[in-house]
TrEMBL record:
Pfam families: GST_C_2, GST_N_2. The lineage of its organism: Bacteria, Pseudomonadati, Pseudomonadota, Alphaproteobacteria, Hyphomicrobiales. GO terms for biological process: glutathione metabolic process; L-phenylalanine catabolic process. GO terms for cellular component: cytoplasm. This is Maleylacetoacetate isomerase. Belongs to the GST superfamily. Zeta family. One of its GO terms (molecular function) is maleylacetoacetate isomerase activity. It comes from Prosthecodimorpha staleyi. It is an enzyme of class 5 (isomerase). Its EC number is 5.2.1.2. The gene is maiA. Gene3D superfamilies: 1.20.1050.10, Glutaredoxin (3.40.30.10). It comes from the Bacteria. Residues 89-214 form the GST C-terminal domain.
Amino acid sequence: MADAPLLVGYWRSSAAYRVRIAVNLKGLTPRHAAVHLRKGEQRGADHLGLNPSGLVPVWQEEGFSLAQSLAIIEYLDETWPEPPLLPAAPRDRAVAREIALTVACDIHPLGNLRVLDKLTADWGAGAPARAAWARHWIGTGFTAIEARLAHSAGRYAVGDTPSLADICLVPQVYNARRFELDLTPYPMIRAADEAARAHPAFAAAAPEAQADAE
């Protein structure tokens, strides 16, 4: 019998957090392995053999390896279709993707560890400047998402069922709190985040619940 799939991540990686939520919503039980980003283990030969980008997460099965959180989540949704991670209606699916991509493409890359480290290396940005940079870009993205949620939200970000939108939004709210962004201007985001974090699949995926949490 083949080994269970392996999910390689890091407890505080928001991209890995997304995949953990998706895995839990699907009821899957992969093996887990941790790569310590702060210690630079992602730049080691073993990890680069899995993902030449030197990032997490990585999903690995026998004869197959996949990086990029949204690609992994889409693969999981196509391979294990129940419960679906996108709404049934085409317009709702498009909105869920829009919210997810606003997080994954517009917000997250600018607060990624390697970007923050580059700010420090090239411009001497210390911890306060790094945090201010992250708050700026999270806030910019959250302003757009908040406006969208005014039309799409039910109990969750898009309607009354957790979707790809929540899978991406909740880890980004976690990062917002970590960088001490004032969330007062975003009541719709706060409500969707609170509802999602109460769901067992989200709770089990939380960074502090992971074996490698520090």
